């Protein structure tokens, strides 16, 4: 299996690794900083440089039973056993991190006010949407929730990662906001802790403080069913530039 370094440090943008498998035209590495698509967050992209100097593009990544599969574009993948250097597109990753943390803030605001959970969502580089199981919703309520999110952003809460045994996490309904079928089969549940505001299970990458999210603006809302309400968000540029780690 692949050692997924992004689970504990989302600011790592590169690492040395070894090819341990080939699958569907892609490579499986023993370790990676590349986030594989999942939970509404797109995969990272980047480059893979072999020990002989050959460079190939990584167009995406996905999860498999053998580890993270890195899709190689435009060239043959390096052979099993090849030492490689993996580097991701930091700008793309950082945008995903900002939007993902923003959605957690919105989820926290909705859960505090309505006790409602998440039914779906999707993150892009320039926008995001999320769905909640709520019977009543309108533009005025959505604007109030966004104002709450911006308040927490301005307060600059630390955002931390911690782990909890699955059985313990399942005993606290506030931690698992997604529908049961969206919860992965894992023994240790990864939690995103927005200190002093919200804690919930999640496998994606996040900023290290709410200030990095920047100003949140409501784009639009949609009624997707009797209880399913959809919110679209956009972010302004953050007040400070991102700092990646090599």
If you had to describe this structure to a student in words, what would you say it looks like?
With 246 residues, the chain is α+β, with helices and mostly antiparallel strands. The protein has 2 domains: 3-88, Elongation Factor Tu (Ef-tu), domain 3 (Beta Barrel), CATH 2.40.30; 93-235, Threonyl-trna Synthetase, Chain A, domain 2 (Threonyl-tRNA Synthetase, Chain A, domain 2). The protein contains 3 helices and 15 strands. The longest helix is centred in the middle third of the chain and has 25 residues, at 90-114. It starts with a strand and ends in an 11-residue tail after the last strand. The relative contact order is 0.17.
Can you lay out the helices and strands and say which pair or pack?
Elements: E1 3-4, E2 14-23, E3 26-29, E4 31-32, E5 46-50, E6 55-64, E7 67-73, E8 83-88, H1 90-114, E9 118-123, E10 128-133, H2 139-155, E11 159-165, H3 166-170, E12 188-194, E13 198-201, E14 216-223, E15 228-235
Parallel strand pairs: 1-4
Antiparallel strand pairs: 2-3, 2-8, 3-7, 5-6, 5-8, 6-7, 9-10, 10-15, 11-12, 12-13, 14-15
Helix pairs in contact: 1-2
For the sheet with most strands, the description reads: 6 strands, antiparallel, barrel
Question: What is the correct CATH architecture of the largest domain?
Answer: 2-Layer Sandwich
The residue-averaged pLDDT reads: 91
If you consult CATH, what is the topology of the largest domain? Answer: Threonyl-tRNA Synthetase, Chain A, domain 2
Low-pLDDT windows of residues: none
Q: What characteristic shape results from the CA principal axes?
A: elongated
Gyration radius, rounded: 19 Å
> How many β strands by DSSP?
15
Q: Return the CATH class of the largest domain.
A: Alpha Beta
Report the order of strands and helices. Answer: EEEEEEEEHEEHEHEEEE
Helix content: 10-25%
Give the distance, in angstroms, between the N- and C-terminal Cα atoms: 23 Å
Count of separate DSSP helical elements: 3
